[in-house]
Amino acid sequence: MRVLMVGAGGVGDAAARIAVERDFFEAWVVADYDLGRAEHTVAAATGRRAGEERFVAAQVDASDADAVAALAREVRATHVFNAVDPRFVIPIFSGALAADADYLDMAMSLSVRHPDRPYEEVGVKLGDEQFARAGEWESAGRLALLGIGVEPGLSDVFARYAADELFDHIDELGTRDGANLVIRDDDGNEVFAPGFSMWTIIEECLNPPVVWERERAAGDLEQGFFTLPPFSEPEVFDFPDGIGPVECVHVEHEEVLLMPRWVDADRVTFKYGLGEEMISILRTLHTLGLDSTEPVTVKGVQVSPRDVVAACLPDPATIGPRMEGKTCAGLFVTGTGKDGAPRSTYLYHVVDNADSMRDYGAQCVVWQTAINPVVALELLADGTWSGTGVLGPEALPPKPFLDLLAAPKPEGYGSPWGMEER
User: Fold this and answer.
1) What is the CB neighbour count within 10 angstroms for residue 223?
2) Strand partners for 274
3) Where does the Saccharopine dehydrogenase-like C-terminal domain start and stop, copy by copy (predicted)?
4) Which of 303, 385, 410, 413 has its CA nearest to residue 14?
């Protein structure tokens, strides 16, 4: 396996640090628009293992499908791993196919909704552009594995596992994510600094969240999707491992678009513990028009308001030393168990920032995202996972993934997941 990873931000950097410990690949090319950043990631990864020579840096414009394809051909990539934010999904996705390489991402192509239509009208959904090209990938005999980060990603693996091993009937697949993370300044005061891309947070949280219901679908998958206003239906969810109760709200996310395609359930939702401060900031940004991606002219210079907001905040890759607490990603499944009795189970994965910083020099949110595509690549390398077309994690066997993730090193990745009955 020869991997071309596009993106050397927080998640890409963490993925390289994780991957260097494994032997399943022949080459790992780290490509970024900023060559210096790619070189920094290569240095950080190779410094973790004596004699390591599989990592090299390259420059690429992720917005240019032809440039991605050209680089993939040049480095003889078998797999293109997309580690940049969602606005670059389609050119990287297209470039990988043009180069006859398989593809993985952690966020799917963007949604588009007509602003004058009612909330219930979904419009173009996350991933629609990619699924529309599934036939091209099938004809080419190549695999595009979508949404294989943590959310989406691990929760989707949990959904398949729950359907296969735990439940006879699923009432709801409810992704529920929360944390008790705090970021402090040099004086020990709490400061506002998102754990991952602010550009992506704005995109996810201010778009109308999607829900899927079997009753609405009436046999037609697409009819089952509908949207709600942002921050709808708040609920307090009690997270494990000392995180405790966190208020969660509906957020637009890929799990809702992926799970109903391969897993039988009556309802699919995604809720995230944003917190009162984040919701207030997002609402203010929207009111001021600072969430817009349309360029405006400032003193003769064209700038995107959202890009400016993101640029004004700390790079998520740099805040690890000032972060404390844990983050939890998981799936709350309700329905009927294999024994015919009602069952409510939370499958989850918790990462303590102190652990990820100590072991990898990566803050916990980006590390938790980065480990899952590396596990997936290893399963693809040894043939445990395989397929053609455009697939989600739910389409592939879950147990090998969960076993490899949790198994102690060096056999596995030493990152156990948990399960609670509620």
Assistant:
1) 13
2) none
3) 149-406
4) 413
Q: What is the pTM of this model?
A: 0.92
State phi, psi for 419 to the nearest 5 degrees. Answer: -145, 130
Dihedral sign from CA coordinates of 307, 309, 310, 315: positive
CATH classification (class only), 2-150+367-416:
alpha beta
H or E element that contains 326: strand 326-337
Q: How far apart are CA 85 and CA 88, in angstroms?
A: 6
Question: Do residues 363 and 353 touch, judged by C-beta distance below 8 A?
Answer: yes
Which architecture characterizes domain 154-364 according to CATH? 2-Layer Sandwich (3.30)
| Domain ranges for the chain | 2-150+367-416, 154-364
Q: Are the CB atoms for 377 and 79 separated by under 8 Å?
A: yes
Taking only the tens place, the pLDDT of each residue in 253-302 is: 999 999 999 999 999 999 999 878 888 898 899 899 998 888 999 889 89
DSSP letters of 54-98?
SEEEEE--TT-HHHHHHHHHHTT-SEEEE-S-GGGHHHHHHHHHH
Give CA–CA dist 270/256, Å, rounded: 7
Query: pLDDT class for 36, splitting at 50, 70, 90?
Result: very high
The closest alpha carbon to 275, from 251, 299, 252, belongs to 251
Which residues pair with residue 347 across a beta bridge? 331, 419
CA-to-CA distance for 373 and 420, rounded, in angstroms? 25
Residue 118 binned pLDDT confidence (cut-offs 50, 70, 90): low
Report CA dihedral (371, 377, 379, 380) to the nearest 10 degrees.
160
CA atoms of 228 and 241, how far apart (whole Å): 31
361 CB neighbour count, 10 Å cutoff: 17
- Report whether 93 contacts 105 (CB < 8 A): yes
Query: From CA 307, how far away is CA 289, in angstroms rounded?
Result: 12
CA 372, CA 131: separation in Å to the nearest integer?
A: 22
Distance set, CA 342 to CA 117, 126, 158, 194 (Å): 39, 32, 19, 38
How far apart CA 395 and CA 332 sit, in angstroms, is 19
How big, in percent rounded to 5, are the helix, strand and coil portions of the chain?
Answer: 40, 25, 35
Task: Give the tens place of pLDDT for each residue, 3-12.
Answer: 999 999 999 9
| Three-state DSSP class for residue 412 | coil
